[in-house]
UniProtKB/TrEMBL annotation:
Superkingdom in the source lineage: Eukaryota
InterPro entries: Kinase-like_dom_sf, Prot_kinase_dom, Protein_kinase_ATP_BS, Ser-Thr/Tyr_kinase_cat_dom, Ser/Thr_kinase_AS
Acidic residues composition bias: residue spans: 329-340
Keyword ATP-binding: yes
Keywords for the protein's UniProt record, in alphabetical order: ATP-binding, Kinase, Nucleotide-binding, Serine/threonine-protein kinase, Transferase
Pfam families (UniProt xref): PK_Tyr_Ser-Thr
Family annotation (PANTHER family): OS01G0750732 PROTEIN (PTHR47989), PROTEIN KINASE DOMAIN-CONTAINING PROTEIN (PTHR47989:SF20)
Phylogenetic placement of the source organism: Eukaryota, Viridiplantae, Streptophyta, Embryophyta, Tracheophyta
Sequence similarity: Belongs to the protein kinase superfamily.
SMART domains linked to this entry: S_TKc
GO MF annotations in UniProt: ATP binding; protein serine/threonine kinase activity
Record-given protein name: Protein kinase domain-containing protein
Domain Protein kinase residue range list: 29-307
Amino acid sequence: MNSISAMGGNTNSWRIFTYKELHTATNGFTEDNKLGEGGFGSVYWGKTSDGLQIAVKKLKAMNSKAEMEFALEVEVLGRVRHKNLLGLRGYCVGSDQRLIVYDYMPNLSLLSHLHGQLADDVRLDWKKRMKVAIGSAEGILYLHHDVTPHIIHRDIKASNVLLDSDFEPLVADFGFAKLIPEGVSHMTTRIKGTLGYLAPEYAMWGKVSWSCDVYSFGILLLEILTGRKPIEKLPGGLKRTITEWAEPLILQGRFKELVDPKLRGDFDEDQLKQGINVAALCVQSESEKRPNMKEVVNMLKGYDPRGKEMDLRIRSVKYKEELLALDQPSDDDDDDDVDDYTGVPDESEYGIFSALEVQKMQDTYKHYGDKKVEKHV
């Protein structure tokens, strides 16, 4: 596990757990302690001997593919230090066991508040939503600009934004992250992520850059403001993306109709317009026209005049019908292929969209099982 040993000088804030410690903390990995399950394995709630509440990601099987993703996530988690990123509490490596330990987030995920079991409680008022939007943006900004090598997350979405006891957002799940060397603007790689959040150049051609995360954040921001899912299923089996729904309302200046009705009109209209403005910039189809995350954070805080020059037109790109047709539940792809981290595309293989429906999610960490793309290009 060379990648784990090469994490650098962050050894003072995480540690190696024994399997016995984690077995005890999770009450033997019982069903009562299970937070979620997906193709990778399961996540359990636990409490350490010193009273710390933890979430333990326990991998189901160790093939070369799972080993690579485990090593990558531990390496990235060991590098990041930011209040809006879910850092590494520790890990455990046994002869046939791989476990990653995080802090447990008592307010679950953003997804659970927007679409899940907490949505009806409306705990996420307007002020908290803006806090989540800005904090998430600052976490991604750190990944793109403040850590070396720079990190592209590749799976920014509502289920990967966890909320602490004060509703401070923490961007989580770095299993798909890419470490980008200095001076490299983009790479071509195997497509991973969740349909609805994927930038068009990435979904179609596997071209990944920091701008892909910006696009995903734009979709996430629209989701926070509107309470709509990235892809909605309409009567008759039709599907509509959030940008297709929002664009006509934006063009007609009907901003109030964009707001999540669960807020019952309790929102700041100026912040709404600014948020829609930022989202429209982020989800432009041409990647070079999107702002970087420094500009996004500044605009959300009201510091950057660029937003005032925007004509508030999304100009979104529709996913091709064959892509939308794949947006359905299916069995996880359990092949033993090693993911292509070299940036060299493999044009001879095609994967599938897989895993659980988002609406089936019951708790924080069940996002590890929702629909993700795994496709060779």
